[in-house]
């Protein structure tokens, strides 16, 4: 649409100059749920990081009396490659951060493709669409808390590549379709041999 903006005309038929529209910075969202719940915006904490690249340590404070069994991190609202490293938590009554060990073994649903990670406790995620996310179990690591206490979660995210230009999204979708076709063909060849 922004590309067509330069071709618009006003009420008198004179061309109107269009201004390029910049994509918003990626938002990072942390969803939380109990075992018997699904994810929705009512159980989500969001922030907009200043940077589109590099390594960020993000902290999310969940509402009081929230004890999630699962967390889902959406590192950005754009396709890209994201690394998740250290995940830690603390309660209102606790000054110290507690590291959540074994992140790769705690993974649940992943929307995107997992990539090899250099960090033994980390994971890397590649996504061709605007909803990259992964879920991990945290409930077994959390202690019983007093009523009214909040829980804070810190996650280290490496923004390796963030595709924030909408014009490139369609190209990524096409490439994704091609890769899926190649995977299916390679599996058929393996099955034949």
Helix-strand layout with pairing:
Layout: E1 28-33, E2 44-47, E3 54-62, E4 70-74, E5 80-91, E6 98-99, H1 103-106, E7 107-111, E8 113-115, E9 123-127, E10 133-137, E11 151-162, H2 166-192
Antiparallel strand pairs: 1-2, 1-4, 3-11, 4-10, 5-6, 5-9, 5-11, 7-10, 8-9
Polypeptide structure, described:
The protein is α+β, with helices and mostly antiparallel strands and 193 residues long. The protein is built from two helices and eleven strands. The chain has helices at 103-106, 166-192; strands spanning 28-33, 44-47, 54-62, 70-74, 80-91, 98-99, 107-111, 113-115, 123-127, 133-137, 151-162. Strands 3, 5, 6, 8, 9 and 11 form a six-stranded antiparallel sheet that branches. The chain has a five-stranded antiparallel sheet with strand order 2-1-4-10-7. The longest helix has 27 residues, at 166-192. The radius of gyration is 21 Å and the shape is globular.
